[in-house]
């Protein structure tokens, strides 16, 4: 794992970014701190919430590599999954949303409580704000720790843009990256979209990315 400040100081386009690199900024520091504080949590339930591409699954990967456990996607949750968690102390439930089997989720929460296990739930918004029909489930979702990943600051935006560019084997001058940061929406999803746009325009025109291509993508 690389330190973000070190990345910014030792700016080097030859650097190879690995899948387990995670860039910590003000917006995601609390979530990152919480997964590393395990098992010293005040409660057994942790909800990591944030928009798409904000790094929720990345954090879960770091947690599972460090502390072990089982990961279940909410869409594949069934009675067999519920039984399979028995040997594990740590359970991760990914992408909790309104379109679920609420009784199964409630059963899972009960097992976590009864067996003194730990549960990390990822979601787009805090699970306490999801309007579940089952009243007991709504009550349970309020009794957990919440780690909200907020919109990225400039430093984190820089690192994410650099990472997305590196994934596409694209190098840009630092001044071009700073130019992008000042002009695109402060959003993880928008960063991903914008890098896709400038790469697409660059390939179409068969030209390296410059101010002109960046401005064209901004106007789309």
UniProtKB/TrEMBL annotation:
Gene3D superfamilies: 1.10.8.60, P-loop containing nucleotide triphosphate hydrolases. One of its GO terms (biological process) is DNA replication initiation. The lineage of its organism: Bacteria, Pseudomonadati, Pseudomonadota, Alphaproteobacteria, Candidatus Pelagibacterales. InterPro entries: P-loop_NTPase. This is Probable ATPase involved in DNA replication initiation. It comes from the Bacteria. One of its GO terms (cellular component) is plasma membrane. GO terms for molecular function: DNA replication origin binding.
């Amino acid at each position: 794992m690389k330190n973000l400040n070190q990345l910014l100081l030792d700016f080097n386009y030859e650097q190879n970014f690995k899948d387990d690199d995670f860039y910590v900024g003000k917006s995601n520091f609390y979530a990152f701190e919480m997964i590393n504080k395990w098992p010293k949590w005040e409660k057994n339930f942790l909800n990591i919430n944030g928009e798409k591409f904000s790094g929720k699954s990345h954090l879960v990967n770091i947690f599972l590599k460090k502390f072990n456990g089982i990961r279940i996607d909410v869409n594949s949750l069934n009675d067999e999954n519920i039984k399979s968690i028995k040997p594990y102390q740590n359970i991760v439930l990914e992408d909790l949303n309104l379109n679920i089997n609420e009784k199964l989720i409630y059963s899972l929460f009960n097992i976590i409580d009864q067996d003194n296990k730990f549960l990390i739930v990822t979601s787009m918004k805090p699970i306490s704000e999801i309007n579940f029909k089952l009243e007991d489930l709504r009550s349970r979702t309020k009794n957990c720790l919440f780690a909200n990943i907020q919109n990225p600051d400039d430093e984190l935006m820089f690192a994410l843009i650099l990472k997305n560019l590196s994934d596409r084997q694209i190098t840009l001058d630092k001044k071009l990256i700073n130019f992008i940061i000042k002009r695109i929406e402060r959003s993880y999803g928008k960063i991903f979209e914008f890098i896709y746009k400038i790469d697409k325009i660059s390939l179409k025109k068969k030209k390296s990315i410059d101010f002109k291509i960046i401005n064209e993508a901004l106007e789309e």
